[in-house]
Amino acid sequence: MSITSDGGPQMAPRLLRALRGERLERPPIWLMRQAGRHLPEYLELRAANKSFMDFCYAPAAATEATLQPLRRYPVDAAILFSDILVIPDAIGCPVWFETGEGPRLEPVATAEDIAKLDLTKLLTRLEPVYETVGRVRGALEADRTMLGFAGAPWTLATYMIQGRGGDREQARKFAWQHPDVLAALLDILSEAVALHLDAQLRAGAHAVQIFESWAEDLPERFFNDYVVAPTAKAIARLRQMQPDATVIGFPRGASHRVGAYVAATGVNAAGIGIGGDLAAARAAVGPSICLQGNLDPICLASGGAGLDAEIDRILAAAETGPHVFNLGHGVVPWTPPAHVLHLTRRVRGL
Ligand code: CP3
Question: What domains lie within the chain, and their CATH numbers?
């Protein structure tokens, strides 16, 4: 309990309480990519801002994009409108978007390339992002949670090595051929992630999520050395600066390894992707770690009786421990907003 300025007692917002291990009568809900292209008002705002990265660095536009879904849906959280690729962009690995093709980066290939990355630029370059966090937090009702985020070191390294997304074979090849160079890159990224998350918490985020979008199908030693260890390092470093930092980890596609991931990284909550088994994950993490997920975004976009059955399945699973209702991956652009409204109202019991 904390005391508000008017002297009345005020509980932490519901979603934050769940992330910290409290079991609520109804699970709180937010959705990955709840802002963005499924909303007509986003497409309009986006059309007025040519480059996507510039959009991320424009506090007025990014604040508006963050708040748009909150006006439509009874979600429990705002997620900062930004991108995981602002970290590489800010430390000297420029990022741009080719229309219809996704992100492009100037690839890093050698120890010399990595030596040129400059962590000292991170916080000044990303100042507009922290300003956005502050503006959103200032506009938020007391019962809603402000979430910040970062990409995990391995996922960021994968983009930086390949210069793009795709099938990730180039990143795995690099990992087998140049483990020492990769280790140096992951060290820089662990520090960058910690600094970026600390700055978001200082600017007003209640909690943060670490997106490990590319945890799927890794050899076990890669998972341990490149997913778990650098994430654990980033979180330990973050907690030197913010001892009470509340962290959600989302090792997408690796829910069968979530027990080891949670134990070694120290996250408060773990995201479970589309293919994950909530009962098995609960057994693996124990009764007090919060789970988050795992509705198929295509089920949400499809709607109908299939959606209701899936909502009820997840609500039943959520009775076994602290749970945050979410998707197993982001909202897809063709999702009708009416389906999102239906989902959020049903989960909230409205
Ligand atoms: O609502 C939210 O979730 C907040 C904003 C957010 C975005 N990207 C906005 C965005 C968040 C949390 C992300 C995370 C992100 N970005 C991830 C991790 C989650 C995941 O999807 O696995 C990754 C891998 C990225 C990298 C990225 N950014 C890609 C691959 C793309 C292109 C593909 C796509 O969906 O368009 C982006 C662009 C991007 N990031 C858009 C948005 C709204 C679309 C760009 C546009 O509006 O023109």
Answer: 2-348 (3.20.20.210)
Residue nearest to atom 9 of ligand 1 (CA): 83
This prediction's pTM: 0.96
> Mean pLDDT, to the nearest integer, of 23-49?
96
C-alpha 85/C-alpha 126 separation (Å) is 11
CA–CA dist 146, 134 (Å, integer): 10
Which member of 57, 73, 159, 261 is catalytic?
A: 159
Q: How far apart are CA 332 and CA 250, in angstroms?
A: 18
Q: What residues line ligand 1, using a CB cutoff of 6 Å?
A: 32-37, 46, 52, 79, 81-85, 102-103, 149, 165, 211, 213, 330
The tens digit of pLDDT for each residue in 224-269 reads 999 999 999 999 999 999 999 999 999 999 999 999 999 999 999 9
Task: Write down the mean pLDDT value for the chain.
Answer: 95
Active-site residue identified among 23, 37, 346, 348: 37
Active site residue 33: yes
Q: Between residues 7 and 95, which one has the greater pLDDT? A: 95
Is the Cα torsion angle 211, 214, 217, 219 positive or negative in sign? negative
**Which residues make Cβ contacts (< 8 Å) with residue 1, sequence separation at least 6?**
9, 10, 11
Residue 280's CB is within 10 A of a number of other CB atoms, namely 14
